[in-house]
User: Fold this.
Amino acid sequence: MTLELRNVTKTVGADTHIHPTSLAFEKGGFNILLGATNAGKSTLIKLMAGLEKPTTGEVWADGQNVTGTSPQKRGIALVHQFFINYPHMTVFENIASPLRVQGLGRSEIETRVREAADVLQLGPMLDRRPQELSGGQQQRCALARAIVKQSKAIFLDEPLANLDYKLREELREQLPDILGERGTVIVYATSEPTEALLLGGHTALVHEGRITQFGRTPEIYHLPGDLTSARVFSDPPINLAPVTKRGEEMWMDETINWPVFGEAAALADGPYTVAIRPHHVTPTEPNDVSIAIRGPVQITELSGSESVAHFRIGGQTWVSLAPGVHPYRVGDYHEFHMIPGQCFYFGADGTLAAKGRAHG
Amino acid sequence: MKPRSLVPLIYILFLMLPIYWLVAMSFKTTNEILGGFSLFPQEWTLANYRAIFTDPTWYWGYINSILYVSINTVISLAAALPAAYAFSRYRFLGDKHLFFWLLTNRMAPAAVFALPFFQLYSAVGLFDTHLAVALAHCLFNIPLAVWILEGFMSGVPKELDETAYVDGYSFPRFFATIFIPTIKAGVGVAAFFCFMFSWVELLLAKTLTAVEAKPIAATMTRTASSAGYELGLLAAAGVLTIIPGAIVIYFVRNYIAKGFALGRV
Assistant:
């Protein structure tokens, strides 16, 4: 099974929701749509599911043009961010409903519903109604309904966003087992970069109705194609600053400089934008070659196992993320260490010009 | 008893007084009613009720009323359900104006429509039929039902529709087996309001009927008959007229507040 968008656009009135987009998803592993709220992830899912018609372009499934096919006939499943279940039916009837519509026999429905309920640990709740379940169980019920029919594609539109932290982690860990090995295309929309990294597979970065980058999740994390992609795929937000290359060195704010090696050294002299992830800007000296930068701390966040500090540097606000507890005081100048080897340099047009390397 | 609980108590007594008086009267003889002041019936009688249940001109009044009220409720809901769905799910040209215009229909007094309805129904041969009254009441009930149902439907996320389509439900099947059960409280409240309005409305019902479909309210408002004043009989008829409303209210009592807010709570 493959799922393809070919030059699809979507405009509603004067608003362009999706700019021309081509995308191909394969079965096996997660296909993640990563982007901020309103970036167009849900619209892409609706276009692929047939719930909305593309303004131009085509949707192909398994080498067939399904642009005009209704969602009922596409053999797909969908799980929303909100816990959508049929409130007047029991959990059993909810899970059974796609099979009942297909007209399957009573005994087959019974077996398959029990099977799906077991996978999602809903066995004891089959006779209850959805609103008698906790949020996590309600979403499990929706997931069970999605996997019970052998669909060609499963769409998950931020399925964990409305769950509290603990349940979210628990369900996220189980998701690959729940959905895996089904030979279906799994499309998973999320606004959390961490979630994309944990689920792996392929990721498409969505920003303002465009796919800015698509590829294997770790690869596009380690090599963002452009500035937008780097920003979309970083949490906390990636640190940015204008820099100027002069000979062998990068200059930031005319006071900070560091030597560049490798492909960065081959760049032409001139202005660039440097980007570095928050965990490569640390309060203690890392093992890598690093340079010291100083700035006043503005906001600090302690999560217990990690410390986050927002500080001013070169006219920008940067974020440092480090394991452990660090004693920051708001207003104090604090020394941070950045690793030039982990920097990305973007040209004036926003595309990646070079990736920093620590040594020649 | 605290003095502050006295206020609601007095208020409730004040409200219940006419109903009590009606019930008490229905068990009195006409002579006793006209004879003087008595808090309780001196001489209990079921003759008034017996008269109603044995005299076709009386009990047919109830049957006629129930018939056209039922027809009206069915027509109103059948028309309002799809209309409310369209208002709650789609944006179309002039939708907001149309929605408001529907409600303004309720602002004109029924008397305004009595003459055109009378003339029109006479011309097409609908005069003095149950359908005539049922259709006339639709003028007020369909907008009301649309408003109530739209509120309830807008409370259901659009994602429910999408999930059902993806699960393979066709639109009619989704609407009948998933959507309507989901908003059944709203359907109940809308049905209640249609029933209530149609049940208590007198002017159109009276104007559009003569003999065959004469409603109970019309029968009841003839205060004198060949036998003179029959106040006991009228009181018994009044009691029997309250009962259906009370039964319906009992069933929708938990949703009624939401219904008055047109589902927008």
